[in-house]
Amino acid sequence: AALQALKRKKRYEKQLTQIDGTLSTIEFQREALENSHTNTEVLKNMGYAAQAMKKVHENMDLNKIDDLMQDITEQQDVAQEISDAISNRAGFGDEFDEDELMAELEELEQEELNKGMRNVRLPSVPSTSLPSRPGKLLACPFTFLMIKTCSLTRKRAEDEDEMKKLAAWAS
């Protein structure tokens, strides 16, 4: 009886292995069918999409699209020009050339310098001979003019630096 039970057990194990293999094969086939069905649906939908795109593009002409895009670009350029025109400062100051104004300012400064030079009284020429070695600088009216000219030049350079910084900040 024990031998019969052992044989039965082996038959059942063999049947179980066959059934397990059959179930695995059926499951594999089911998955393959599902994938085939999914692929078929995807393919069908891609066909529908292609047909829909053809219908949409039937009424479109590539030349018309190019013309439309050029029109849009031109209108954007016009809008930018209008925006630039509106945002520019209105009023005075724009019609003057900066270089001309600087030249005029330099002329005025030179005239002022020349007026100051006319009122300067020069000392008489010394009758004694000058020392052979250079000594200390003597104070004279020209020293004042040279210092004033240097300070004006330095001020102008500082103003130009300030204008450059302001222009860089503004842009």
From TrEMBL:
GO BP terms in the entry: late endosome to vacuole transport via multivesicular body sorting pathway; protein transport; vesicle budding from membrane
GO cellular component: a single term: multivesicular body
Pfam families for the chain: Snf7
Membrane topology, from the record: Peripheral membrane protein
InterPro entries recorded: Snf7_fam
Record keyword Coiled coil present: yes
Location relative to the cell: Cytoplasm, Cytosol; Late endosome membrane
Keywords for this protein: Coiled coil, Cytoplasm, Endosome, Membrane, Protein transport, Transport
Family designation: Belongs to the SNF7 family.
PANTHER family: CHARGED MULTIVESICULAR BODY PROTEIN (PTHR22761), CHARGED MULTIVESICULAR BODY PROTEIN 4C (PTHR22761:SF77)
Name by which UniProt lists this protein: CHM4C protein
Protein source organism: Rhynochetos jubatus
Gene label: Chmp4c
